Amino acid sequence: MKKYNHIKINTARIIGLILVLLISLSAHSQKCSKKKLASKEMRLDFDYRGQSIFEELTNGDSTTLNIVLYSKQNYRIFVVGEQKLGKVDYEVIVTRKKFNRIVKDIQPKTISIYKKDPNGFYLYNPDGERIPVGEKSIMDTVWTRETTSTKEIVYNSKTAETPYWLATPNKTQLISIKINVEKTVKKQTGCIGVYVGREYSNIYQFRR
């Protein structure tokens, strides 16, 4: 009984620590979301309230976030951090799927041969059926479809001409944003904002 009570106490402590950690992370995120990390000139008139994410990171940290982009909508995406963090770089990564037709199996198959006229048209008996003249063996190919996925970096803040990425996807897709905070001798913790701005190109269109 004592051992059982000890396990119950340890489990309660672990759950308590997890709850404290989650509450702490939520508080930090809320604190970061209230900071004005991006200027009005950078944000323009896009709506950033839907999927923008705010987190607290430390020098040398890296993280990857997944964002859903909906079809036929204009997006403006960028990442900014507090000045004390130094340089914050990011990449936008899109998964590309490719479908290839490949041979699944090849098996011998016997088919009937039917009589034809000199022009290559089938001849028919009085019952309207083709006239068989024999059989031949062929190799029957069974095909299947193979799907391969590759990850393509469509934007890299280190080499890009603009500090933001613009996109208007033809179909709804999931993208990844990989963020790297500069390593420094003196570590600092600060807020970063992943701004996902959305501009409705057609307010009556809800296709996904």
Describe the structure.
- The protein is α+β, with helices and mostly antiparallel strands and 208 residues long.
- It folds into 3 domains: 34 residues; 127 residues, Jelly Rolls (Sandwich); 41 residues, no CATH class.
- The protein contains 2 helices and 8 strands; from the N terminus they run H-H-E-E-E-E-E-E-E-E.
- The strands form 2 sheets. The protein has a 4-stranded antiparallel beta sheet with strand order 1-8-3-6. Strands 2-7-4-5 form a 4-stranded antiparallel beta sheet, with no helix packed on it.
- The longest helix is centred in the N-terminal third of the chain and has 32 residues.
- The radius of gyration is 31 Å and the shape is elongated.
- It starts with a helix and ends in an 8-residue tail after the last strand.
- The C terminus is likely disordered.
Number of distinct helices: 2
| CATH fold-level label of the largest domain | Jelly Rolls
Tell me roughly what share of residues is in helical segments: 10-25%
The N- to C-terminal Cα distance equals: 57 Å
Radius of gyration: 31 Å
SSE layout and pairing:
Blueprint: H1 2-33, H2 40-43, E1 53-58, E2 62-69, E3 73-81, E4 88-114, E5 132-156, E6 165-167, E7 173-181, E8 189-200
Write a concise keyword list for the protein shown above:
208 residues; alpha+beta; four-stranded antiparallel sheet; 2 helices; 8 strands
